[in-house]
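Lab notebook, design round three. We kept the backbone fixed and only want residue identities now. Task for the bench partner: fill in a sequence for the structure below.
Input structure tokens:
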């Protein structure tokens, strides 16, 4: 079963401190940050979490999963059913309303896709700090 945090983490984060998408999400500082964050979860919960295809227990959703568009913002298949209501794509961060948040999708040499405060797809340079809304899977008994 897939879960998504209902809000962004308390602090905004960069995808990469250098303004680059080299290596994509898998080589990003964001992925490293989420792997370290996983260690803060109680062991009892971590044991119930299922790894994604890349072996991570936490990850960012793709722009396709969130908004139903590809890296060129063209409509495509693969959107998560409950994300078709764009209100579910909108999240807040401590002290902020309707924050923008990263996805794991590379758009160009310096830009990753993100979901804006209205729930629509856009892109931003990798060194800009935005909201982080991790997804995780729990094994059903």
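Proposed sequence:
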């Amino acid at each position: 079963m897939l879960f998504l945090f209902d809000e962004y983490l308390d602090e905004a984060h960069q995808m990469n401190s250098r303004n680059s998408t080299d290596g994509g999400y898998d080589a990003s500082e964001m992925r490293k940050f989420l792997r370290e964050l996983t260690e803060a979860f109680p062991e009892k919960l971590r044991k119930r979490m299922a790894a994604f295809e890349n072996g991570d227990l936490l990850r960012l959703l793709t722009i396709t999963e969130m908004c139903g568009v590809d890296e060129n913002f063209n409509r495509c298949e693969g959107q998560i059913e409950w994300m078709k209501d764009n209100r579910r794509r909108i999240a807040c961060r401590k002290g902020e309303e309707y924050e923008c948040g990263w996805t794991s999708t590379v758009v160009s040499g310096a830009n990753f896709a993100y979901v804006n405060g209205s729930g629509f797809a856009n892109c931003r340079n990798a060194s800009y700090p935005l909201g982080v809304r991790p997804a995780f899977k729990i094994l059903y008994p």
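Keep this in mind before ordering anything: The chain has a mean pLDDT of 95.
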